[in-house]
Amino acid sequence: MTRFLIPPHVAWVSREDLDHGDEPHAYIALLPAGPSLSLQGSACVVWLSIQDGGTVDEIALRTSELAEVAVDDVLDDVRRLLTDLVAAGVLTVEHAGDVRP
Amino acid sequence: MPPDPGRASAEADIPTAARVHLAHAVVQHLAETAGADVLHLKGPAIFSGLRDPERTSSDVDVLVRPSHLSALIDAMEAHGWEARTDFETGSPFAHAANWWHPHWGWADVHVSWPGAGLPAEEVFDELAEAGATQLIAHHACPVPDRIGQRLILLLHYARTPRGSDKEWAWDQGTEAEQHAIRALAARLDAEVALAAALDELHLHRDHPDHDLWRHFSQGGDRVSEWRARMTSARGVRARVRLALGMVRVNRGYLAMELGREPTRKDVRQRQRRRIQRAVADLRARR
Fold first, then answer.
1. In 3-state terms, chain A is what percent helix, strand and coil (to 5)?
2. How close is the nearest chain A Cα to the Cα of B72, in Å?
3. How far apart are CA B247 and CA B245, in angstroms?
4. For residue B195, is pLDDT > 80?
5. CB within 8 A of B210, min separation 6: which ones?
6. Relative to the CA of B280, which of A69, A96, B25, B162 has its CA 20 to 30 Å away?
7. Looking at the 3D structure of chain B, how many domains does it have?
């Protein structure tokens, strides 16, 4: 089973921390030198669903609850975004059997 | 999915508030990597209820343990931070210098906090003792506890008496909190500066720092500032350094102002202007 996690060398803020703006928005940075990444709208909703880590299905479920839509409607988009975020280095992947530090 | 498709963009044009949060986490990460003790001050480091929530910050302020300064600076400069001012010329108190990073913006690194007379290493120990942290950009950043934060804000207010810091840090505090702030100020030898913030300077008329804090809290010309600083300076070496500082031009600030590295001619012109201003102040006093 594959789990996605936000690694310790990533910092991020969302609209809740900044308390402004009118749509979900998260700013994510690789420490210590960048680059930074901006997630808006539903991409930010997915990010907020990742913060405690989880499998694709768990993250898709949380996203669907936050967005108030069916899981099947979000699963493919969530899977694609997770792949992009792993490629960008702001998510790590933990496979079943991996030992957490 | 919600109606909008969601957007992700790299190298984001980050709003100032978000950038400052991320920059605190960056500096904390570098400090941990370098083994440098720091305390995050002001802006998002302040606990809720101690500052006007509408007030925003445009840079990072950290207090570094003085003996760890070079470790922190080495780590910052190894990761793209550039020194823009030095400690001698960065402020009238020679307590801070500014660094710039193209992604993260400005960071003010402080080795001491103006107003506290105790040796800076001991001030750091006292402020760090509670082991308080504030989560900034989802990173635990060490900060002074609530009483320490209130005192930091008040000492800052003593030299820049603008805004609502006194109202939030002092007026809205309970009697017990105000008592604790005074007790901490006594331990840090910061009673005169605190008195300046609280409009109680008349209680310290005979203290060598009295005139200095009257100048910063109530204003005055350059001549009264230098006279007050000379009175406040402890020892011959401190006074000689101060006298040299009177004519020294801050090359970092001049570079920022000109938008380029200043030439020797620029520096000479600025020195002449400083001297002319001092002479004008003296004439105006006659």
1. 45, 25, 35
2. 13
3. 5
4. yes
5. B192, B201, B204
6. B162
7. 1
Has residue A48 been placed in a domain? yes
pLDDT in tens, B198-212: 999 999 998 888 888
- Chain B contact for A76, CB < 8 A? no
Q: Which residue type occupies B143?
A: V
Q: How many angstroms separate the CA atoms of B257 and B253, rounded?
A: 6
Are B53 and A74 in contact (CB < 8 Å)?
A: no
Give tens-digit pLDDT for B70-125. 999 999 999 999 998 877 665 666 678 899 999 899 999 999 999 999 999 999 99
ipTM: 0.89
CA gap B210, B140 in Å, rounded:
38
d(CA A23, CA B35): 39
Q: Of A27, A51, A13, which is closest to residue B44 (Cα–Cα)? A: A13
The confidence band for B267, taking pLDDT boundaries of 50, 70 and 90, is confident
* β-pairing verdict for B105-110 and B60-64: parallel
B272's enclosing H/E stretch is helix B264-285
Number of domains in chain A: 1
Taking one residue from A and the other from B, the number of pairs with CB-CB distance under 8 angstroms is 113
| Ranges under pLDDT 70 in chain A | 16-22, 97-101
Chain A, nearest residue to B57 by Cα? A18
- Nearest chain A residue (CA) to B9: A38
pLDDT at B226 over 70: no
Residue A38's domain comprises 2-95
- Asked if residue B253 belongs to a domain, the reply is yes
- pTM of the predicted protein model: 0.80
